[in-house]
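[retry 2/3] Proteasome subunit alpha: previous attempt timed out, resubmitting with same input.
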Amino acid sequence: MSTPFYVSPQQAMADRAEYARKGIARGRSLVVLQYADGIVFVGENPSRALHKFSEIYDRIGFAAAGKYNEYENLRIGGVRYADLRGYTYDRDDVTARGLANVYAQTLGTIFSSAAEKPYEVELVVAEVGETPEGDQIYRLPHDGSIVDEHGSVAVGGNAEQISSYLDQRHRDGMTLAEALKLAVQALSRDTNGSEREIPAERLEVAVLDRTRPQKRKFKRIVGGQLSRLLGAGAAGSGAAEAAPEGEE
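[retry 2/3] Proteasome subunit alpha: success.
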């Protein structure tokens, strides 16, 4: 009888992590940024039906990169959790932190289970507060860990390079047009440093807008409104970008 092939637990976990990272890297990147009046989600997505960004609850948004069927299952589970908790207790008891903990437990259990493959997804859960200081952004990698982010975050295939670009240029108090323009510039940069143009038709954009009078702060930005914001961002950010470009 042959001896079973032995793989150390450390190597098994490393192999599962590498498998998940490669799957996520095949997807298009997306970014989430704070601006003066809320949080904006921006990603390249040619599909009009399969969304990367969704509303979870009144003030909470969801963004995901990776395999659509896997993060869609997680999104649906998050909506059910939020609805049940809000109905059982109070709407204010539904928070991004609580939702992130639920997702972390699910992803962590799947990642450590030898019976199934790890999920090839990376999530962002964001909640808009009454003030910019109350905004919350949590990034959840494939292994179920939770990273508390501030200002900006990128997930997906080229996330490391995009995050570096955003860290150098993002600032507090940006307008929506400025934040949107910065996000598109970051997504337009290829791994070799060159830039490409992403037309408005290929962008998916949504915001959590704290100034909306409704309880539900999530809304999508499409069509003419998106084109106007991109144009305003291009006009308003030209002078501001001159200094960083000259420093490089």
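[retry 2/3] Proteasome subunit alpha: The first strand starts at residue 30 and ends at 35.
[retry 2/3] clearing retry counter.
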